Amino acid sequence: MKKIRNTKDLDNYRKIILQEKYSEKPCVIISEKSTCCYLSGSKEVVETFREGLKKFNLDNKIDIKTTGCLGFCEIEPIVILEPKGIVYQKVKKEDVLEIITETIINDIIIDRLLYIDPVKGKKCKTEESMPFYKKQRRFVLGNNRFIDPLSVDDYLAINGYKALATVLDTMKPEEVINTIKESGLRGRGGGGFPTGRKWEYARKAEDEPKYVICNADEGDPGAYMDRSLLEGNPHSVVEGMIIGAYAIGSNSGYVYVRNEYPLAVKHLENAIKQAEEYGFLGKNILGSGFNFNIEISRGGGAFVCGESTALMASLEGKPGEPRAKYVHTVEKGLWNKPTNLNNVETWANVPLIINRGAEWYAKIGTSNSKGTKIFSLVGKINNTGLVEVPMGIKLYEIIYDIGGGIPDGKKFKAVQTGGPSGGCIPENLINLPVDYEKLSEAGSMMGSGGMIVMDEDTCMVDVAKYFVNFLKEESCGKCVPCREGLERMGEILSDITEGKAKNQDLDLLEELGGVIKDTALCALGGTAANPVLSTIKYFREEYRDHIENKKCSAGVCKALINFTIKEEKCTGCGMCVKQCPQDAISGEKKKPHKIDQKKCIKCGACYDTCRFNAIIRI
Amino acid sequence: MEITLNGVNVQVEDNWTILDAAKFYGVNIPTLCYHEGLSPYGACRLCVVEIGKGDRAKLVASCLYPVKGGLYVRTHSERVIKARRMLVELLVARCPQSKVLQDLAAAMGIEKVRFKPKNDDCILCGLCIRMCEEQMDAKAIGFVNRGVKRKITTPFDIKSEKCRTCGACIYICPACQLRCQGPDADTVLCGSCLNFSPSCLELYKDIMCYMDPCVACLEDKKLKKKDGNKKNE
Amino acid sequence: MAKPGDLLPKDIRLIDAIIKKYEAKKEFLICILQDIQNVFEYLPRKALIHVSEKLEIPLIQVYGVATFFKAFSLIPRGGHTCTVCLGTACHVRGAEKVLDKVKRTLDIDVGETTKDMDFSLKTVNCLGACALGPMVVVDDDYHGHMTQNKVNEVLKKYSTKI
Question: Which of C43, C52, C60 is the best substitution to test chain B (most B C-beta atoms within 10 A)?
């Protein structure tokens, strides 16, 4: 492949691709090139389709397109049959033959493979009819559906690198910055800082050389939006970075990917190589005279390296310790030079804004939060997946209309946003519109997009303890409030979950949380108290119950619960006896069994096993 | 340029930090990980001061924060004092044997430590590391591990080839200097060497002067003593 | 004369090749250490010393990096590495119970290796496969939808001693 030397050649090449390769051939779309889809067995489905189509002499007439994440993770592996757009869910390799003979050849729909909407009980044939997709606006993540992430031509066919061509041909760097400013794009990594303004500061900084960084150290547990973007559409991030580098005057870029995302690294390496081949990276990009290179560096397993100064320290070959940001990184960042760092999703929004215009973008969302945001909707929710929604959508719309509500008929209790820096939002705030300011006011934050739904079986004290322990593990240990404070908060929370605490401990927890928030050196420590303070704010009674009554009503805190067998319901089947690691259950066959409380270690294996609901937690 | 320090407009040099300005004007801000001859680190957070007004007020480390024209600084506001007391409480709980920490606790009027005492020796201020690197140019010791397991040592915990046994690290260490002999088993505090509790803080929620000790308090104490004696008579 | 713990000349050449791949740039220290660990299954002391010399980074800094990041191990690890995901979504779905069961079955704590060196136990804070949680990874195999009752059969696949 020869380098594309200018934007006119690019236009011509794009036309050729669209004519030759992208005719209206029917095609089978399978999301295989994504870590969790791969793990649910989509590889075998793809292989079986290849063999099957060949067997029926259809391999020349029907294409197979393997894509990245399609967003609806709950029903993976997904197979979409174009051009009719029929969606089959949870497809196993054993189903493939039937799909080919029934649907592809004979146009018959296989009912059992259709998705059933849990709210209305209706069967859905296409994406349009699925409530999951209805309220979404998949401008960024939606492109995953149309491209094989390993094919740059696929990306070009959906107008890939058109924004870059527009920028290099017709816009000065200041104009690019103004466009981003007018669009209202704010950092999608959690900080929410106006991107255009950040680029402007970086441009104005007087030192050289300048650096551009993509923060792909997605560390919030439960959030995997960045992974799916990098795996499914790496070129969109590359294109965004090139445009950003041009705008601020940088010739060197880094993508810092966390170690735990090997597939994302692989797809990104491939995309960068292709971009270099085609001339989108390197010297004299598209004949503009602008040079830019991107290198990939990997993280070593530290959540704190998602913090920009810690990330830069890590890139300098030092341990990932943050430093005070009294002098911003746009002035003194990597190697003390001006550095512009943005999150993966932020970069991916840039080509979209250039292509559709700032005005179009600014129409989506609320007055201060523009555009869409990708959330990972996980936890106790029917429709687990990645959802992209316009800012300002209400929480209940996401949880009930898109998410399909809580499984097993359980009651919604809280939704946790913003990862370990965020907080829990209770039922009475479920009408909250999702935007940066509203979430902060409620005591949480937007964060990178993790949205974890919790039900009546979740203990909020346990959730607070979980997050504090997480942060304690991940703290760099540099400053006193975070290192010492988190450890002590952890001790107090453990005491509460073990029934050893007193009411003053709750006050101490709040006091300590306040000081940590005020004095911590970086955002990890500064927001570390949020999960604790927000759960105390909205679930104080639950804390009191643990402390005063030594009770855990959600049935989670081991020291405060007992497992007992209800005689009336026990059939004496003995299944629980087999699972009990302590041999604590005894009883005759077909007669009600009993748990010896002295031997019981409260692991809950019996509770998980019993099919007659005979074991209860009190 | 001009900043407002505890309500007073003062002139400062362009390249100063808030701590530099405070020291110049005789305002005493407690520090642990700061030393004049070494680069500032900003880890102990004891030197925090409150800048800004109203909703936008926040605490920053004065040893690192550069002065800006018009900056509004309060070195001993209620929020700052609350923070410093909690930080010292956490530190004393970590190293009850450190005289420097016990003295700080006494100076702040901390009455008890509400956390289980550990028996650590090192407060991880990093002065020894910066001494070794910046003044002695040896780079023999450094921080190792992270979080609660963080400690200061040589590579692999064995004798380092770079270490010239100059002793500068021991010299600079605030926790090594003197051991406190008297932490109380109940409160974890000692308080024998230093006793100082400013009363203006209770009345005005802010230190009311720039001298340390505040003369007004001593006068107040003298009066209280006189009254006390009178009552006894 | 070679002492125990010394690297063989071919090991040194291998490390040099890794360093060359990354052009001896400091930005790739973590990547270099990861590649070295992939070969030796841990980070040998002499390897760290060698990297420090070649990249011109003070040894204490390299050692600091090697001990700061969870990805690195300075001691040889067990035959099979069992990693339990403790991300929030997995936690809410009962990952702690799975971890407890693994701990009881292998009789080790997180960060330890079984006496027969068969298994090492680690935890990770989110693999990004939340729809399949709770997640347990053994070597390069991902096992989703784990429950404590499935732990034994999964571990049995890797060792006959379970």
Answer: C60
